Amino acid sequence: MLLQLFLVPSFLTFAMANFFAPSDNANAALGPQLQPWYPESDFKTFGSGLDVSKYTPEGQQFDVKKVSVAFLAEYYKKNPDSLTYRDGYEDPDLGVKHAWVEQTHDGIKFANTDGKVTFNRFNKVVTVSSSYVTLTTAPITLLKATLTLEEAIKVAEEALRGTYVPPTSPSASATSDDKSSLQFLANADGSATLVYSVPVKNDSQGTYFQAYVDAHEPKIVAATDYVAH
Ligand SMILES: *[C@@H]1O[C@H](CO)[C@@H](O)[C@H](O)[C@H]1NC(C)=O
C-alpha cells in the first residue's frame, strides 16, 4: 500500500520550533518573522519494501550512500549531482538503515531542505521523504558573496548578542572558511538567497541561534532559535 502524507519529518522539527523572541530586549526586536521558511515535506511508505537492487551494479556490495542518492534523484526527479549523502546510521538489531541526503545548488547546500531514505534489512526502501525544491528563479548572478564570513559573523553577533560558534565537523578541519559557511535558503517564490550560516551563542543568556546572514548585504534574513521553549 502506498501512503501519501504531508508532514514535517522529525529531522526538521527542531529547526521549525517557533521563533519566540527571547525576553531580552535586543532579541525581542528581531521578531517572529525571522523564522526560516520550510518547504512542504513529502513522505511515503512502501510496506514490505521497494526493490532498488538496480542501483547496485552486478557483483558489487550494496552501498547505502550511492543507492540513497541514486534512488532519491530518480524518485524526486533531481539531478544526482545536486544531491549529497550527509549522514546515516544502521539500527544494529533491526538492520534498518537511515540515510539523509541534502540538496545542493552549484555545490552549495540548501539550509532549509532535506531528504531521507530508510532501507529494511533486505536493502529495500521502506520510507522516503523529502522537502527538495525546484528553483524557478536561478540564483546564477548571486553565486558570489560580496560579504566576507568575518563581516557576516559581526552582523550576527551584534544582532543576536552572542558569540560565533565555529561548526565542528569530523570531516572538516575545526576552522571554518567563507565557502563552507555559505548556504542557500530556498524561498517560497521559487528563488533562493545566498546566506552565511552563522551559529551564535550567549551562555550567560542561555541563547543559541542559527543565524542566516545575507551574503550580499549586512542583514539577517532568517534565524532559528535552538532553545525556543
Ligand atoms: C550576552 O548577552 C548579554 C546581555 O545582552 C551581553 O551583555 C553580553 O555581552 C553577551 N555575551 C556575549 C559573549 O556576547
From TrEMBL:
The terms under GO molecular function for this entry are: metal ion binding; metallopeptidase activity
The positions making up the signal sequence are 1-17
In this chain the FTP domain maps to 82-132
Keywords tagged on the record: Hydrolase, Metal-binding, Metalloprotease, Protease, Signal, Zinc
InterPro entries found in the cross-reference section: FTP_domain, Fungal_virulence_M36
Q: Name one GO biological process term.
A: proteolysis
Q: Protein name, please? A: FTP domain-containing protein
Native source species: Agaricus bisporus var. burnettii (strain JB137-S8 / ATCC MYA-4627 / FGSC 10392)
